[in-house]
Amino acid sequence: MRAVGPISLVFLAAPAESAVLADLRLPRRTPAPSFPTKGVAQSSDAAFKAWPALNNETTRRAVNAGRRFRLHLDTNASRVVDPTVELFHGDSLMSRFAMAVATRRCIDRKEFFEACEFFAQVQGTLVADDGLLIDVACGHGLVGTLVALFKSKDFERVIIRDPRRPKAFDEVVSAAVEVAPWVSGRITYEQKKILPSDPLPRGGAAVVCVHGCKSLTDRIIAAAAEAEARSIALMPCCYPSDAAQAPTALVQSLGTPLASDVQRTYDLQMHGYEVRWKAIPQSITPMNRILLASRTSTSLASPAVASLAVASPASAPVMDLAAPVVPPPMPPRVDPAAPKSPMNARRNRVSSDFRPDALGGGSTEGTRW
Ligand SMILES: C[S@@+](CC[C@H](N)C(=O)[O-])C[C@H]1O[C@@H](n2cnc3c(N)ncnc32)[C@H](O)[C@@H]1O
């Protein structure tokens, strides 16, 4: 009879027996403690920054900001005021983009506000040496699109990389082009995975990822570091049970989510990044922690870097972001005959202008968007 080891025996045995065999061959141990998966120390909360009107709980509830509920405008004349129309009313670029997205009914409210708040938190720290932003595992591509809309001066090109290309992406880009023609031609969808065999472009790009599930976030960290990304912004989700290789003591004490992000912070630091943590409002998502990594310089010795430098498209305007945005003619968004709520003025002031490029790299606290 052919000699078989204990592991082979386990696989050769019938399913009912395999547990018994496995049990016989393993030293008896007390059951492993079940570690907290929610995190003893939860993420910090944060105020709404892109849409400050949502800091008002009544407004937030009225527009269902954190719900998986299609973003749309209720233009039914029988309703006095649609809170979403009120929120998006205004001439800022952000308001007009929001209107254009809502008109298309292409994504859920949660996704929209999540992407906007993530963008508002990270935009000042996103830096690239080659004018390239890569939005990985992005689905609808909203974050990359917001970068193309508001940071065209810093980012001439945006790559969206995800193996699945949802219909919503084309709608989101068409909404952006409708209100900001300079977005046209800047965004490329790469329908592929993050894989060691298919690395990210080298050259000091900025890499972002919102809710890369489980270990996908770790693979993105590895890929971005390998590509010498200049800055990385991640908002992890679905924390893996192995807690990104975090030490057991940290997992036991801090819980899986926090221990995972502590480990990721060390990983990023080992790769030469300085890391900060930020957050978006928990009312949008409890998976709201942002890991923001940047390095002061990259080694740009590789000749591949030069070939990646992208010339500014001739048609792309150099955005004077200090100048007021001149809105293109748009159909009226609200029935002018509809009575206006006295709260309109306050609620509608999402921002009188949305000019992140003009803000430089610093904090945007208290800044008009
Ligand atoms: C939870 S969704 C996040 C989508 C979007 N960022 C959001 O916040 O709504 C995860 C995304 O990761 C993508 N994905 C899965 N495996 C991937 C991989 N290996 N490389 C790149 N993207 C991947 C999926 O197609 C999906 O769109």
Structural features, described:
The structure is a single chain. The chain has 369 residues and is an alpha/beta fold. The chain has a domain of 246 residues: 3-Layer(aba) Sandwich (Rossmann fold). It contains 13 helices and 7 strands. A 7-stranded mixed beta sheet has the order 3-2-1-4-5-7-6, sandwiched between helices. Helix 7 links the parallel strand 1 and strand 2. Helix 1 runs antiparallel to helix 2. The longest helix has 15 residues. The N terminus and C terminus are likely disordered. S-adenosylmethionine (SAM) binds next to strand 4.
Any descriptors?
globular, binds S-adenosylmethionine, disordered C terminus, disordered N terminus, 369 residues, Rossmann fold, alpha/beta
Strand order of the largest sheet: 3-2-1-4-5-7-6
Low-confidence stretches: 1-41, 299-369
Proportion of residues in extended strands: 5-15%
Predict the CATH topology of the domain at 52-297: Rossmann fold
Tell me the radius of gyration: 24 Å
Give the termini distance in whole angstroms.
77 Å
Structural class by secondary-structure content: alpha/beta
Number of helices: 13
Q: State the name of the first-level CATH class of the domain at 52-297.
A: Alpha Beta
Helix content: 25-40%
Helix-strand layout with pairing:
Elements: H1 6-12, H2 15-25, H3 57-62, H4 83-88, H5 93-104, H6 109-122, E1 132-136, H7 142-150, E2 157-161, H8 167-179, E3 187-190, E4 206-213, H9 216-226, E5 231-237, H10 248-254, H11 256-270, E6 274-279, E7 289-294, H12 303-308, H13 344-348
Helix pairs in contact: 1-2, 5-8, 6-7, 7-8, 10-11
The protein binds S-adenosylmethionine (SAM).
S-adenosylmethionine (SAM) binds next to strand 4.
